[in-house]
Write a structure and sequence with these properties.
- Chain A: This is Proteasome subunit beta.
- Chain A: Keywords: Cytoplasm, Nucleus, Proteasome.
- Chain A: Belongs to the peptidase T1B family.
- The complex is a heterodimer of chains A (about 200) and B (about 350).
- Chain A has 4 helices and 13 strands.
- With about 200 residues, chain A is an alpha+beta fold.
- In chain A, the strands form 3 sheets. In chain A, strands 1, 2, 10, 11, 12 and 13 form a 6-stranded antiparallel sheet that branches. A 5-stranded antiparallel sheet of chain A has the order 5-6-7-8-9, covered by helices on one side. In chain A, strands 3-4 form a two-stranded antiparallel sheet.
- The longest helix of chain A is centred in the first third of the chain and has 22 residues.
- By secondary structure, chain B is an alpha+beta fold.
- A 5-stranded antiparallel sheet of chain B has the order 10-1-2-11-12. A 5-stranded antiparallel sheet of chain B has the order 5-6-7-8-9, covered by helices on one side.
- In chain B, strand 1 and strand 2 form a beta hairpin.
- The N and C termini of chain B lie far apart (about 85 Å).
- Classes of the chains: A alpha+beta (about 200), B alpha+beta (about 350).
- Chains A and B meet through strand 4 and helix 1 of A and helix 7, strand 9 and helix 8 of B.
Amino acid sequence: MEYLIGIQGPDFVLVAADNVAASSIIQMKHDYDKMFKLSEKILLLCVGEAGDTVQFAEYIQKNVQLYKMRNGYELSPAAAANFTRKNLADYLRSRTPYHVNLLLAGYDEADGPGLYYMDYLSALAKAPFAAHGYGAFLTLSILDRYYRPGDSALSLIRLNKRFILNLPSFTVRLIDKDGIHDMEKLPVADCSDCRAPGG
Amino acid sequence: MALQDVCGLHNPPLFPQWSAPLSRSFMPEDSTHLSGGGIHGEAFSTRLPGRGGLSPLEFYMPIAEYLTESPINFGQTSLSSAPTKLLEIDHLHPSLPSISAAADTRSSCSGLVACPASPKVLPIHSHLVGTTSGTSADCALWKRILARELRLYKLRHHRRLSTGGAAKLLSHMLHPFKGTELCVAATLCGWDGDDEKHEQPITEKHANTPTNQMTASNSSVVRSRSRICGPRVIYVCSDGLRLQGELFSVGSGSPYAYSILDSSVYWGMSVQEATEVAREAVYRATYRDAYSGNNVDLYHVTAKGWRRRERENLKEEYYREKERERARVAERNAEKKAILKSDDGEIV
């Protein structure tokens, strides 16, 4: 099952997605990237039905870039999230709905970091942390327990390492005022020495 | 249709709705091209099928929804058991990266073998080969449409469209049919770039990559970022899935082939080794899977284009294996007898 997670910190957003592209029982790829870069500081993470994810995410990606070309400035994360939601809602009410679950993470100069959770019924919510997939059942409770709004990036990365489930590896990215940074890919072996932060 | 007219048959076709006039086809912008240059679309809608007298230059494009009613739904009984078996290996020998693509040749229909010698690896142009799985008719049709579009691209832009571009084109052409019974699972294996002199940059990169799936991802990221030429294998499915990778196995026999491939394929294989592994994987899949069998086709794509190995009948391989097994069993029995005899000797 596919898995996405996002955690917002005081001045950054940390997102991670698993790397598996599966087709029924077979893992076709072990290094598939589920994150789509909408702009220098906005990432869209997309899981769901096989072709819909790429089609919808690329559609949103190209439209956000078109906005930038036409108007000279980029969409803010909040605007991009609402634009995505509107499109998803419109398609939901057509003959060809897209079955995708999304996380949109971005950093705005004025508003700071933002993480938006959207599901396939185009319900949008801005949240300090969010997850999609079966793994969400397990990780959301840990996040509820241990998340503190002022956590530093390092403690949140440690927290992230704890969640790794049956999936072999994850892509992790951090968005802050300087843009999108790739963190190292996390294989399962690395998390055995991590413990949850105290308190 | 054309042959019917040439032979002078005047029997109405069994399923008249199967061959509908062009004006109702789903690709209206190409109607002049398909009707042999004439603008006959309107005139035919009044003609009854089976009248005869149609020019052999015209041919009909089956309408998508009518294909489900056709009795000859080649190669597809249900969507869950796509009957073909094929695989691609993008083996990167440090000095000669290339792609090996292998497939079986059985087309089944409702539990019967409709054709034991169907080609499942179809060349699209000189440097692109596509393997097909799913409904044979759908695959053949979409391959031809893709070939036409790529040829038009080449004529308009004076260069070949890259494999990634071809995959994206195919994926977008199939997207309107999502949710219908169209079933195409194709793997496009192609060589991007102009000619052999660009091989040098690739060799440096691939020489550094160990046979580890973690760093394999790094190399694929490197390749996509620099947009240089080289081999590329992309899997396109009518669901809309589009994956680039180094190794794919598709079809009903694919799990059997995957296990052989995962154990034997490594970076830096030679062409002979890859051919052997591909052949073995297809053989094992045909052994276990009912919908795969008969022969194995092997294509090899390099900077110079694709090359085809002669079609090999796997029946021979099956009998050779039986012989080997028989020899092994005989040897084991002989050993057992020898041990028993020596035991008797000692006891007595």
